[in-house]
Design goal:
By secondary structure, the chain is α+β, with helices and mostly antiparallel strands. Helix content is about 30%, strand content about 15%. The chain has 3 domains: about 45-210, Dipeptide-binding Protein, domain 1 (Alpha-Beta Complex), CATH 3.90.76.10; about 225-305 and about 560-600, Periplasmic binding protein-like II (D-Maltodextrin-Binding Protein, domain 2), CATH 3.40.190; about 310-560, Dipeptide-binding Protein, Domain 3 (Dipeptide-binding Protein, domain 3, Roll). The longest helix has 18 residues, at about 530-550. Residues about 1-25 have low confidence and may be disordered.
Length: about 600
């Protein structure tokens, strides 16, 4: 009898549950308060697994292979620092190096590095990690296989990443090759082979495995998880205490995350001192210290309180199913009529820079990105919003007027009517979309709102191989934050037509914009090293984006909300704290932000 692979997965899960060693329940009072750092805003719902090959673990405390990778349990060769745009060695020893043709990138593994089972971490682990990704077509492979030809070891500690080459013999995308080393984990070869044997080489089963027996290299390991909390425990044999790396262990013995039902419950716990580090949106966060007098603070002492690195964006449906949105006058009128100051004041409670402070482009507000385009060259294309008079004038000039007296404008005799959507329960996004709808009413365009559940919303928006259905005329999604390939990667995901037609598109350009000139520049940027030419190219892309308006940024949002309560712990990262390199406000778990765990002190030792 043949078993299909879904049945195999089910049997494996049953077997794992049956054979796993039961973990006793851990009450919050069982964790010594003076040894435990508590978080909120990361973990929503129970952990599914601990599998670093999978992106379906719902394990926000330990698994996030991203521009600023989460490195509490699994580690990358390098750490990206969003504050200075540099990468610093973690598992690696010294900087990486390109060959003269930028076709091979090499680095060395720190000989001090070892796994949690005390076996050495070597170049062969890096090589086998990549080979496994490719063999089983994991999400990491899918994201990188078009740019990386192979990863090989030339000796016990030396790794060479060979770029995939184009017809001219140049690397297809050097930016994505070098980003690999600060984005993706090194996974132990010996454990991976155990996993492969357990799933009998089945790719679906490999990604579905809960990996309860996983071996890692980071400073913390899994300790306990249920539907109420997740707890990590420090590995006191962690290799990073070697003088070649941190030279000591991180200060807290336990990292714990209570699973709160919503932001309101998380804020209540933060105010009570039950949460030390809050990665959630706390409305009017300044009131916690100005009015309530609590020992709570943010990375910046004044608005916007955090580093705005990502650009939540309203996308227009340009797939042909939203009548009139192919008309630039309609798109521009809506975009310039939106009252962005109200969004920032109400939806973000001023936890965003304004568009007067940081004029809109494709760049985030960080100094490094702002320097990458010519501000004067695009000044006449930028808008700060709430320009009702200007929006009405654009529509009138285009002949888009109310001909039947019902209060709504028509285009070629058809009323302009749209639905603006955001996921239900995402309160700041919903508040922003309400402001977009209000702008429509001010200029005679009927915009109503609808808030599907995320489970439905994400399925619809990411299916790019068909026109978006009714009800998704204007919709919100995110953009990339700060990272080693920015702003190129963010621009690519906002403008590149390469994602159009994908059955499952989690990358971007969800509205279906297509511009061959933009595509050509986006493709050329990774090959360019001249800074002056890069600035010209980025400026041209900003001009295209602000002229065509396929989507529009509604606010600047922090990479992470980083609000801390100093009732128990102190010496958290803050702007101007004197750390060198500076520690970014990433909750001490992402990229170079993890350095903050080594600086913490108890308020009452």
């Amino acid at each position: 009898m043949k078993l299909n692979r879904f049945l195999i997965v089910a049997l494996l899960v049953v077997a794992l549950v049956a054979t796993a060693t039961p973990t006793p329940s851990i009450a919050q009072e069982d964790l010594p308060r003076n040894e435990t750092l508590y978080f909120n805003g990361q973990q929503w719902g129970s952990v599914v697994g601990w599998n670093p090959f999978s992106n379906n673990n719902n394990n926000a405390m330990t698994i996030a292979q991203q521009d600023n990778a989460r490195v509490l349990m699994f580690e990358t060769p390098y750490l990206y620092n969003m504050l200075d745009g540099q990468v610093y060695p973690l598992l690696a020893e010294g900087p990486y190096e390109w060959n003269a043709d930028r076709t091979e990138l090499s680095f060395k593994i720190n000989p001090a590095a070892h796994w949690s089972d005390d076996t050495p971490l070597t170049a062969e682990d890096v090589v086998y990690t990549w080979a496994t990704h490719v063999k089983y077509n994991t999400p990491t492979a899918a994201a990188n296989v078009d740019y990386i030809e192979d990863i090989v070891a030339t000796d016990e500690y030396t790794v060479v990443i060979k770029a995939k080459l184009n017809d001219a013999g140049a690397a297809v995308n050097p930016l994505l090759v070098q980003a690999y080393v600060s984005t993706n984990y090194v996974i132990q070869k010996a454990w991976t082979q155990v996993l492969e044997e357990r799933v009998a080489g089945d790719a679906t089963a490999l990604l579905a495995d809960a990996a309860e027996d996983v071996v890692a290299s980071g400073p913390y390991m899994k300790y306990f998880a249920d539907d109420s909390k997740v707890v990590l425990i420090r590995d006191d044999n962690y290799w990073g205490q070697d003088a070649s790396m941190w030279g000591k262990l991180p200060v807290p013995k336990y990292l714990a995350h209570i699973i709160y039902k919503d932001n309101a419950a998380g804020t209540t716990a933060l105010k009570a001192g039950e949460v030390d580090v809050s990665q959630q949106f706390n409305a009017n966060v300044q009131d916690l210290w100005l009015q309530d007098g609590l020992p709570i603070s943010t990375y910046l002492p004044e608005a916007p309180y955090g580093i705005g690195a990502t650009l939540p964006t309203a996308f227009y449906n340009l797939t042909g199913s939203s009548y009139g949105l192919d008309n630039l006058a309609v798109r521009k009128a809506i975009a310039i009529a939106v009252d962005y100051p109200t969004i920032i004041a109400n939806a973000m409670t001023n936890q965003s820079a304004t568009f007067d402070q940081v004029p809109r482009s494709l760049m985030n507000p960080t100094a490094g990105e702002q320097a990458m385009y010519d501000h004067d060259a695009v000044a006449d294309l930028q808008w700060a919003g709430n320009d009702i008079e200007g929006a009405n004038a654009i529509l009138d000039e285009a002949g888009i007027v109310d001909t039947d007296g019902d209060g709504w404008r028509e285009l070629d005799g058809q009323k302009l009517s749209y639905v603006a959507t955001a996921p239900n329960g995402w309160s700041d996004w919903q508040a922003a979309i309400e402001v977009v709808a209000a702008a429509g009413k001010e200029i005679g365009i009927d915009i109503t709102t609808n808030y599907p559940e995320w489970s439905v919303y994400q399925t619809v928006v990411t299916k790019s191989d068909a026109p978006l259905p009714e009800g998704y005329d204007i919709f919100m999604m995110w953009s990339d934050g700060a990272g080693p390939t920015q702003p190129w990667s963010r621009i690519r995901k906002l403008m590149s037509s390469e994602f159009n037609g994908m059955t499952s598109n989690w990358n971007g350009n969800w509205g279906g914009y297509a511009n061959p000139d933009a595509d050509a520049i986006i493709a050329a940027i990774p090959q360019e090293t001249d800074e002056a030419k890069l600035k010209e190219m980025y400026t041209e892309l900003v001009q295209m984006y602000l002229s065509d308006i396929p989507s529009f940024t509604l606010m600047y949002r922090p990479q992470s909300f980083h609000t801390v309560n100093e009732s128990v712990w102190t010496n958290f990262p803050y702007d101007g704290d004197g750390t060198n390199p500076p520690v970014p406000p990433l909750d001490m778990m992402d990229g170079w932000g993890v350095a903050g765990l080594y600086n913490l002190e108890l308020v009452n030792p």
